[in-house]
Structures are given as structure tokens and as C-alpha cells.
Write a structure and sequence with these properties.
The structure holds two protein chains of two kinds.
Chain A: H1 2-21, H2 27-31, H3 35-76, H4 79-82, E1 86-87, E2 92-93, H5 96-127, H6 130-145, H7 148-174, H8 194-217, H9 222-230, H10 235-264, H11 267-272, H12 290-297, H13 306-337
Antiparallel strand pairs in A: 1-2
Helix pairs in contact in A: 3-13, 5-8, 5-10, 6-8, 8-10, 9-10, 10-13, 12-13
Chain B: H1 6-9, H2 15-66, H3 69-73, H4 86-117, H5 122-136, H6 139-154, H7 159-184, H8 187-195, H9 200-211, H10 213-228, H11 232-235, H12 255-263, H13 268-298
Helix pairs in contact in B: 2-13, 4-7, 4-10, 4-12, 5-7, 6-7, 7-10, 8-9, 10-13, 12-13
The chains are: A mainly alpha, B mainly alpha.
């Protein structure tokens, strides 16, 4: 104690002397050379310019897609969004079918992926022994890192035959006979189609949603959970009554993030969707999403043609949809994950 | 715990004993529900791991037999003749490297701006928001955008266009990790450097970047891994090329595009090559991910 006190006294004694000797706290910097100040200004401007560049990039993407689609918007008006015809021969283009395919596959994918993702997140935060959490969590994240074209190939050569040989014939014979929902499971069992695409999408977004949910669940203060356990709650009751209410908004944000990913996924869907420009009532029927339609038909369209413009217009619609979903997701997730 | 107590059963119908039985029944039900949910979660996790395993097993099963030295030394060839993937692999490497080289400095500067210069100004919030949107934006639209700005005006598909499309995907990944890593540094470090009289740009480049180096490198590696497997943004930019070409101003081959073209073809030898390519790219991407993660954990 005495030594500490004497230190303070010493400092107090020397402090006025020093400041008296040097009124400018950084004399060398201010007077000599000025390289620090110039360097600072240049570096700060470079950083800010890079930031502005990112803003410009997004603006340019939106503008270019809109600009590219203008010819189609002009030709078809509002009917471009709602029209269900896609006929390159007659030069009639409508986005209806692919918008329908995009939304239906993405929503079906979420219906399958969300319960599974919740299970994985619950396992990783409450059930798994601590030594297993790291490896299993990494494995789930690695699943997210697999390139989408690999999912496409895997789906095309493995899931499609599996669907056409086992799942679809079975579903057509049983569920397809039911009065009301039968139409959903009708049609020939090709293996490809809306349901298969949704299945592949579900597998692809599962790790994203699961990892987000796990991170969100981990933000619950341990005291809350411990109190609930202390009252005799089971693990499920703790998650249902403490963790989920606490993280509800962020969980929805995580699901929206998955939705955003599912909407724009291209390669995997292109392999298995079946590529047909009509709306079919059956889940086994072929369809198209915006992304798969662009990927499949872009190569066959001439520069400057109406078809190319229609495809760019489709891109603009997809961008608007995913922008809204991703913005909502970020708005919901931010308070929890970003301090 | 759930076994009923015989002495209590005598007093059936009366207050405390009945309460006890009700409580026990409730407890049994709660535990049953908890157990059911628990096993369902085990199942979900097991299914997730099974899917990863299934993908890897399929790739090894189909790709390993097709993998030979020729895959790495021969150029893509018409079906029936002996072909490899050399031009696709080289094209992928070139475009990935150029994309990373263009995207990384921009991403690094943006991340630095967000963490060191402007934490919560309106501009910084807008940049952060837009960067997050770009991080998850459909990659095919980035391909369309680059088609509009680089392919149409310059009159053709090119490796440069493909590289720029990949660079646009690299930027937000690097931004995110750079900002996160710089934010982890304690402010005392910055104060110490400024206290020594160093200008801020020296503080950032010589102290903050170095202290956060492993994290930033992790971000770059993750970006490379993501970009190396991207197909959609290359479809309308570098287009793909079945001949040997190192010219960045012409159409350029890449591994994902070749896999896409070959997997959908009716020729068995092309499909086998597609599997080999898929195995190569998946091992590369997952390997990079594991390296990046271990780099971060070692810190």
C-alpha cells in the first residue's frame, strides 16, 4: 500500500512538470514531416471509399438488373409479374410460373428443414456431451460449405432415382388415393420435380438455420436455464419455456436467413426441378424456379433479345424478393447476435 | 421414482395421496415427452451427419475410381477419347486467385472502416447492412450483373468477367470476418499505439491487422473455399471452355462449369470425369474450411 501511494504522489509531482515542458502531447507528429497526418488522411479516405464502393455495388446490381429487364417490363407491363406463359417461340414471357416455383420450393424446404434444424440446435446446446459439441457442430458447418453443384449432382444421381423408385410410387398409391390432398401426389413418378427440389434445398439450408439457432440459443444467460433446471424442468421444458421465448425473434430471423438462401439457390435446383414452365398441382410435377430458369435458358438467348430482357427482369424480381427476406432476417437477428 | 407406493394406494380418493398420484403421473408424462423430444433431436442430428456422410461417400465411391493421373494432366476431350480436367482445374485456380486478389483488399478496407473508423455512423450502418445482404444474395444474380457491365459492353465472355464476379462474392465474406476480428481486439492495444505517438494508419496496418491476422486469413480462406465451388456466377461471365486456354480475355474453363456440363451429359466417361471433378473440388473446399477453422481455434 505505501509503495502504491508513493507512486501516485510521485506521478502527481512529475505530471505538471512534463506537461509544462511539452504543451503539445504529440509534438513530433504535428510538426515534423507531417507524414502521419497525410498517411492518416489517405488511409481514412481509402477505407471510406471502399465502404462507399460496397453501397455503389448493391445499387448498381439493382439498377443493372432493372435496366436489363426494362424492355420486358415495357412489353408486358404488370402482366410480366403475374403472367403464367413462358413461350420463347411466341415471344410471350411471364414470371408467374417461376415465381410460384421459387416460393413453393423454398417454403416446402423450410417446412422440412426447420424442425430438423431445431433438433440439431437443441442437441448441440443442451443434449450433447461437451466434448462432442465441437466436432458435431463442425460437421454441420462443413455440410454448409459443400458447393451447391455437388448437392445438385448428388441429388440428381442419388435422390432422384430413390424418389422415383421408392418414395413417389408409394406416395402415389397411398396418399394419391385420398380425396382432397390426392392431387398433390398424382402424376408419373419421374423422381424430379418440385418436391425433390424442395428436399435438396432443405438439406442445403439445414446447416445454415441450425448453426444460427445454435448461436442464438447460446446467447441465453445460463442463470435463466439453471433456474428452470433448479425448479425441476426437463431439458425439453427448459428449451420450450425459457430458451425459445427468450430467442423467439432471432429464431425467426435465422429461419428467414435460410429462406433467403433457398430462394436464390441455383445449381442444385437446376439439376432436379424438371424444367417445365407450367404450374402443376402435383408436388411430383416438374417446375422451374427463377434461378433455375435463368440458368437453363440464358445460354439460348441472344444478346439484346426480348427473352434476355425477360430473364434479367426475372433476376430483378428475385433480387427484390431476396432483398426483402434478407433485410427482414437481419433486422430480426441483429439485436441478439451483434452486440 | 415412477413406481407407485403401496401404502398410499390404500387411501385412494382422499386428498394428499391422490395429489401424489396425480403428481407422479404428471411427472411420468413430462419425462416421457422430454425423452421423446430428446430422441427426435438425436435423430435429427444423426440425419444431418448421415447426409454429410452420404454426400462424401457418394463422391468417393464414384469419384475415386475415375480419379487418375490423366485427370490432372490431360485437357478436356470429346466423349470416347481420353480426356482429363487439366484446363478446368487451371482455369478454376486462375479465376479463384484473381477473384480473391481483387476482392480481399476491398473487403479488408471495408472491414477496417467499419471496425476502426466508423462504428455506428449512418454510413457505416448502411455499409454493414448492404454487405450482409450481398453475403447472402443469390450468386446467379451477381453473374447477371457482371454480364451486364463487363460481358455486354466488351463484346464477349471472358475470364476477367468471371474473376470479377467471384471478387464480388469474396468482398462481403472478408468484410464480415475482418470487422469481427478487429472488434475482438482490446481498445487498450489501440491506446498504447496512439500513446506512443504513432499515426492511426500505422496503428491499423502494423498493429491491429497483425494482431487480427489469423482471423483475417481465416476469412480469406473461407472466401476462397466458397468461391472455388461457385458455378452460377460463372455461367454468363466466363462461360466455360472445352479447349486449353490461358487467355483471360476469352471464355475460360472452370471446374464447377465442367462438372455442370459433364454431369448432365449422356456419356459415361464424361459423367465419371464429373464425379472425379466433384471429388477434387469438395475435398479442396472442405480441406480449406478445416484449415481455416483450425487456424482460428489455435489462436
Amino acid at each position: 500500500m505505501p509503495s502504491f501511494r508513493s507512486l501516485i504522489v510521485q506521478q502527481a509531482a512529475t505530471l505538471p512538470l512534463e506537461t509544462g515542458a511539452a504543451p503539445d502531447p504529440r509534438p513530433g507528429l504535428r510538426r515534423g514531416g507531417g507524414s502521419g497526418a497525410t498517411g492518416d488522411a489517405i488511409f481514412a479516405i481509402a477505407c471510406r471509399a471502399a465502404g462507399v464502393l460496397v453501397l455503389v455495388l448493391l445499387g448498381a446490381i439493382i439498377l443493372e438488373l432493372f435496366w436489363g429487364g426494362l424492355q420486358a417490363f415495357r412489353a408486358f407491363g404488370a402482366g410480366f409479374v403475374t403472367g403464367t406463359d413462358w413461350d420463347p417461340v411466341q415471344e410471350v414471357f411471364g414470371a408467374g410460373v417461376s415465381v410460384y416455383g421459387t416460393v413453393v420450393t423454398a417454403v416446402l424446404a423450410l417446412l422440412m428443414a426447420v424442425p430438423l434444424a431445431f433438433g440439431v440446435a437443441f442437441y448441440l446446446t443442451e443434449l450433447a456431451p461437451p466434448w462432442l459439441r465441437g466436432p458435431v457442430g463442425t460437421a454441420v458447418e462443413l455440410l454448409a460449405a459443400v458447393p451447391s453443384i455437388i448437392f445438385g449432382m448428388w441429388g440428381f444421381f442419388l435422390i432422384v432415382p430413390f424418389m422415383s423408385q421408392y418414395v413417389q410410387p408409394f406416395a402415389i398409391d397411398t396418399l394419391g388415393e385420398l380425396p382432397l390432398i390426392g392431387a398433390l401426389f398424382a402424376g408419373p413418378p419421374f423422381g424430379t420435380g418440385i418436391l425433390t427440389a424442395a428436399l435438396i434445398l432443405a438439406i442445403m439450408v439445414l446447416p445454415f438455420i441450425a448453426a444460427t439457432m445454435r448461436d442464438v440459443f447460446n446467447t441465453v444467460p445460463p442463470v435463466y436455464k439453471e433456474s428452470a433446471y433448479g425448479l425441476g424442468c426437463t431439458q425439453w421444458e427448459v428449451v420450450r419455456n425459457v430458451v425459445l421465448p427468450y430467442t423467439r425473434i432471432s429464431v425467426v430471423g435465422g429461419i428467414m436467413l435460410g429462406l433467403g438462401r433457398a430462394l436464390g439457390e441455383t445449381m442444385a435446383v437446376t439439376f432436379v426441378i424438371g424444367n417445365a414452365n407450367r404450374i402443376s398441382t402435383s408436388l411430383f410435377g416438374p417446375g422451374n424456379t427463377i434461378a433455375s430458369l435463368i440458368a437453363l435458358e440464358f445460354g439460348e438467348s441472344q444478346m439484346g433479345s426480348l427473352k434476355l430482357s425477360a430473364l434479367l427482369g426475372l433476376g430483378f424480381i428475385l433480387f427484390v424478393i431476396s432483398f426483402i427476406v434478407l433485410a427482414a432476417s437481419r433486422f430480426l437477428l441483429r439485436p441478439r447476435l451483434k452486440g | 421414482m415412477s413406481a407407485s407406493n403401496p401404502t398410499l394406494e390404500v387411501a385412494s380418493g382422499s386428498g394428499p395421496a391422490k395429489d401424489m398420484r396425480v403428481a407422479e403421473a404428471l411427472g411420468r408424462r413430462r419425462r416421457r415427452v422430454a425423452k421423446a423430444v430428446k430422441y427426435a433431436c438425436y435423430g435429427a442430428t444423426g440425419l444431418g451427419l448421415l447426409l454429410l456422410f452420404s454426400i462424401l461417400a457418394t463422391l468417393f465411391w464414384n469419384g475415386f475410381s475415375a480419379l487418375s493421373l490423366g485427370v490432372f494432366t490431360r485437357v478436356t476431350a470429346p466423349p470416347g477419347s481420353e480426356g482429363g480436367l487439366l484446363n478446368a482445374i487451371v482455369g478454376s485456380l486462375i479465376q479463384t486467385v484473381i477473384g480473391t486478389v481483387i476482392g480481399t483488399p476491398i473487403g479488408l478496407l471495408v472491414g477496417t472502416y467499419l471496425a476502426e473508423y466508423s462504428k455506428s455512423s449512418p454510413l457505416a450502418n448502411a455499409v454493414r447492412f448492404v454487405s450482409d445482404i450481398l453475403l447472402s444474395a443469390p450468386s446467379i444474380l451477381i453473374g447477371l450483373f457482371v454480364y451486364q457491365i463487363l460481358v455486354v459492353p466488351f463484346g464477349g465472355f471472358s475470364g476477367w468477367a468471371g474473376s470479377v464476379a467471384l471478387a464480388i462474392i469474396v468482398i462481403p465474406i472478408v468484410v464480415r470476418t475482418t470487422e469481427d476480428m478487429l472488434r475482438l481486439l482490446p481498445d487498450t492495444l489501440r491506446e498504447a499505439v496512439i500513446g506512443l505517438g504513432a499515426p492511426k494508419w500505422k496503428m491499423v496496418t502494423m498493429v491491429c491487422w497483425r494482431a487480427a491476422a489469423s482471423g483475417i486469413v481465416t476469412g480469406v480462406l473461407l472466401a476462397v473455399a466458397r468461391v472455388a465451388g461457385e458455378t452460377a456466377p460463372l455461367l454468363f461471365t466466363s462461360l466455360g471452355n472445352l479447349n486449353w486456354s490461358l487467355s483471360l480475355s476469352g471464355p475460360m474453363s472452370s471446374l464447377p462449369l465442367t462438372i455442370y456440363a459433364y454431369a448432365g451429359s449422356p456419356y459415361p466417361d464424361w459423367i465419371a470425369l464429373a464425379w472425379a471433378g466433384a471429388l477434387i473440388i469438395t475435398l479442396g473446399v472442405l480441406g480449406l474450411n478445416i484449415v481455416a477453422r483450425s487456424l482460428l481455434r489455435r489462436k
